[in-house]
Known about the structure:
Elements: H1 2-8, E1 10-13, E2 19-20, E3 36-39, E4 74-75, H2 80-86, E5 90-91, E6 95-100, H3 106-119, E7 124-128, H4 133-143, E8 151-154, H5 158-167, E9 173-177, H6 194-211, E10 214-219, H7 232-236, E11 239-244, E12 251-259, E13 267-273, E14 276-279, H8 283-287, E15 298-305, E16 308-320, E17 328-331, H9 335-349, E18 356-362, H10 374-386, E19 394-396, E20 399-400, E21 406-407, H11 412-421, E22 426-430, E23 441-444, H12 447-462
Parallel strand pairs: 6-10, 6-11, 7-8, 7-9, 9-10, 15-19, 17-18, 19-22, 22-23
Antiparallel strand pairs: 1-2, 1-3, 4-5, 11-12, 12-13, 13-14, 15-16, 16-18, 20-21
Helix pairs in contact: 10-12
Amino acid sequence: MGLKSALRAQYVCQNCGAVSPRWQGRCEDCSEWNTLVAETPSAGIGGAPQRAPRSGRIITLAGLVGDGNESPPRVRCGIAEFDRVTGGGFVRGSTLLVGGDPGIGKSTLLLQAAAALAGAGRSVVYISGEEALAQIRLRAERLEVTGAPVKLAAETSVEDILSTLAAGPVPHLVVIDSIQTLWTAAADSAPGTVTQVRSSAQALIRYAKQSGAAVVFVGHVTKDGQIAGPRVVEHMVDGVLYFEGEGGHRFRILRAVKNRFGPTDEIGVFEMTGMGLREVANPSELFLGERSVSTPGSAVFAGMEGTRPVLVELQALVAPTALGTPRRAVIGWDHNRLAMVLAVLEAHCGVRLGECDVYLNVAGGLRIGEPAADLAVAAALVSSRLNAPLPPDTVYFGEISLSGAVRAVAHGASRLKEAQKLGFARAVTPAARESGAAAGTDPVGQLADLVAAIAANARSADT
Length: 463
């Protein structure tokens, strides 16, 4: 009896899934307060088996090459930007987790994808645990997709969902909105807890693998931008997509952070309109649509998102401060990377920024992660510090080392081609670029050379 009572006294953190033998105010693993909840070991993490194991069965072993009778491995939904991020469409028998901030458009995107797939003759089931059928139909009317033969249901019981799916033909796509609202009788805890989310995801993933249907989960995110619930769910699914966007911008970016069947560096760009999400085939035009060419501190960066070149405006503001510690504010770029560029400008280029506040913003809500943006950031900072606008027909890309040298980056030809397509005549590039010097390029070997050129243009403009 003592052992049984000890097994029951397990507390599971609802933030990270850590197990503790006793209740305490703060989780020792993730340091979150008041997240430990008592759960039975039969359904909790690390629970003991409650029945004797069954005898094993002999499974069929197959080779790497199929017999040619299998169904197509991928199903395209018809939304090109969505298919780009998934690597070419939904993989049969796979599970996908889509996360994003509340109100960002996750349900809108998946309803449009489900309607496009159903309109192409595929079987699609959309199950909502948060909205009633009337609310889903209202959204479908706004999106003008009421004619699509999507099968709807409002249910949160995993057993009822699986029984309903097993009673009919296997659908091509099943959308679950959202995984945090589901519950299963196999777990003795409230919906949304670690045990319920994990157990519900396990049951639906098992159904996807056995039936061949593609299952898409919608996941809520925490205040830190991470998908809520145990991290083990992200490890269980085949792909994890984040739907990003700022509340003040109309752009939405779908980004893959995990994909077992495709790349993880592709992005899909959408524009939120009154009739739902619209695909953006050329995001560079939108990110540069409101650019002011005569404002100091504005530089155009030729970046790469996966295989797609994207031109985006970088805005910098350098202003004197009366504070003892100047401010450094960054939106859309790495804060540590900005500190490094500022240090190189101070040490090797003679640009005094220690007594100034520095603000850096990536226009359009895009987040940049590649170091190739160093040169464009430095150009924008020097332009704002000297109050000298940069040439409006010039793009910048290149990585800056701690010695002040400008290093080569990959995909230089694709960046230049995209810039020329949008009407940019010049490009400031690393001197040791992968494809060598090209027409319309200004190779730069040291960051000090770029600073000197911007200062010379400022003096000539003053005279």
